[in-house]
Amino acid sequence: MSSQSDEVFFLENEGLRSLPARSMRSGLLGKSLEDALQMLLQRYPQVIPGRQIDPASDDPPRFVLLRREMPVGGWSLDHLYVDQRGVLTLVETKLIQNPESRREVVGQIIEYAANAVESWASGRARQYAAEFWSKQGKELEEILAEEFGEDLDIEEFWHVVETNLRHGRVRLIVAADELRPEVRRMIEYLNREMQNTEVLGLELKCYGEESALLVLVPRLVGQTQADVDRRVSSRGPVLWTADMLKSAFGEYGGERGQRLQRMLDWALENRCFIEGRAQYPSFGLRGKGKDRILTVFSGEQLYLFFEEKRYPGGIEERDALINELKALQMLDQTIDPEEVVSGRNLARRLTELDGSEFEKLLSVVGMYCG
């Protein structure tokens, strides 16, 4: 007999039939419950209930698995996903009978998030994901396009991922067969108090008889409607026009605002300005082949794209620019562009350059832009 406190019901031919809770341990996808949970999440990202995460949206989060066992800060995260808005979602699975499922798992996933920028920025998340899917005989870009639409601009998408990551806009999910009350309280507190990062719990329960078709019920824990409304009101990419950027940089003031404004004015004067689409102020610099080769972020960080196709002179032109930037100590001397999937952040921020170094940077970039 199953406990009547944990069951779902089938209404069939005017009769009500109960389906008891059933452990995933009984041969479902894995040898153990934790194996089953992890394999279930790998094969079927749709079990993460996007509609529960954002119930009012016409396009709630949809997820693509980027990698199992994602390296981060010397450890490995169980699963890393991304949604159609370029928000990375970190998922860690734990068993209810595992003592870690009580408290340690929450601290663990927050520690992963704290190390995420250092571990995954500058194209490394994309590189890790591409390596994972290559071993499965698949192309990452094809998987993303299949889920998010064939018209997906892959480079712009990864640009948004990078921007979200730098600003701490990620989603943390603790997945389990059942979440203890003390874990629920911790998740609810963190999700309420954190501004950009969502912290959620996900219970994945199975119902049904041993030999029958199983019913899988995902239940989200951790947020109120007020939490949803607060994040919805502040999220979403903005198309940053030159006038909007001037206004934003003017509000920064100090050397940071002056350097960003000078960079913007220079881009407009040299006709290489590209409007940025991101949550925070940013813009691109167009190369001579009319593709974006640099992105300027509001944190004074510059991101250089390494793809050969962006440079009309091919590898020789790209490598010439890389060598010029290395000479300015703007790139690590050991970087091999052939080992980089997308690009890299430049090593120094704009305010870390003195006046002559900053003007030299503009001179070098000017040879490849416009």
Overview of the molecule:
It is a single chain. The protein has 370 residues and is α+β, with helices and mostly antiparallel strands. It has two domains: 7-234, Trna Endonuclease, Chain: A, domain 1 (3-Layer(aba) Sandwich), CATH 3.40.1350; 238-366. 38% of the residues lie in helices and 24% in strands. It is built from 13 helices and 14 strands. The protein has helices at residues 33-43, 50-53, 104-114, 116-120, 124-135, 140-148, 154-166, 181-193, 225-234, 242-252, 254-269, 314-327, 355-366, and strands at 7-12, 15-22, 63-72, 75-83, 88-94, 171-176, 198-207, 215-221, 238-240, 273-278, 282-286, 292-297, 302-305, 343-345. The strands form two sheets. Strands 1, 2, 3, 4, 5, 6, 7 and 8 form an eight-stranded mixed sheet that branches. A six-stranded antiparallel sheet has the order 9-10-11-12-13-14. α10 runs antiparallel to α11. The protein is elongated, with a radius of gyration of 24 Å. The model has no long low-confidence stretch (mean pLDDT 86).
Descriptive tags:
370 residues, alpha+beta, Trna Endonuclease, Chain: A, domain 1, six-stranded antiparallel beta sheet, elongated
Break the fold down into its secondary structure elements and pairings.
Blueprint: E1 7-12, E2 15-22, H1 33-43, H2 50-53, E3 63-72, E4 75-83, E5 88-94, H3 104-114, H4 116-120, H5 124-135, H6 140-148, H7 154-166, E6 171-176, H8 181-193, E7 198-207, E8 215-221, H9 225-234, E9 238-240, H10 242-252, H11 254-269, E10 273-278, E11 282-286, E12 292-297, E13 302-305, H12 314-327, E14 343-345, H13 355-366
Parallel strand pairs: 5-6, 6-7
Antiparallel strand pairs: 1-2, 2-7, 3-4, 4-5, 7-8, 9-10, 10-11, 11-12, 12-13, 13-14
Helix pairs in contact: 10-11
